[in-house]
Write a structure and sequence with these properties.
globular, 26% strand, 7-stranded mixed β-sheet, alpha/beta, Rossmann fold, 176 residues
Length: 176
């Protein structure tokens, strides 16, 4: 299994615990985050680019991606790479922020664009990072638009589940 954009290893560690005999590879482009993942117990990490995965075609039975797709410079290219490295009938599990439905979008947008960056600036001098976060979430496709993107690169929707009042969505697809 490939945990793409694994960061400090949260999902990789959960997968290792749930599937102790599975080979889990955590991939990220950030060496400091990979060092954290290793220090926390992720057994196998690789530095790499999600838009040019360093694996052969049909290599993985499953790929996970948590809170990273919205950061891809080219989402279609990244999804095509995921499709390429998945084996036939392989599973792609995506956990990502989702634009909230009304009426939550009014509160969420105020929180994202105004309150959260202001607090982050006051507390940690990190206002710009939270402004980027707000922008990346607000520009992410709606669930129907995301499903079209997934289908366009050869992934068939198996299930989707809204979580956290519609702010986060788990999407499970299969390579056809």
């Amino acid at each position: 299994m490939l945990d793409l954009a694994c960061g400090s290893g949260d999902v990789s560690l959960l997968l290792q615990k749930a599937l102790p005999t599975a080979e889990i590879i955590g991939l990220d482009f950030s060496p400091p985050l990979l060092a954290q993942a290793k220090a926390r117990g992720v057994r196998q990490t690789i530095e790499g680019d999600a838009l040019q995965l360093p694996f052969p075609q049909n290599h993985f039975s499953a790929v996970t991606l948590a809170f990273g797709l919205r950061n891809f410079a080219d989402r279609a290219r990244g999804l095509n790479e995921i499709h390429r490295v998945l084996s036939p009938n392989g599973i792609f599990a995506l956990l990502e922020f989702s634009p909230p439905p009304p009426p939550w979008n009014l509160f969420w947008n105020f929180y994202l664009f105004h309150l959260m960056p202001w607090v982050a600036q006051q507390v940690a001098q990190q206002g710009d990072a939270f402004r980027y976060l707000a922008k990346s979430i607000s520009e992410f496709p709606t669930p129907p638009a995301l499903n079209q993107e997934l289908q366009a690169c050869g992934l068939t929707l198996l299930s989707t589940r809204s979580m956290s009042l519609g702010l986060v969505r788990l999407t499970i697809t299969q390579k056809r």
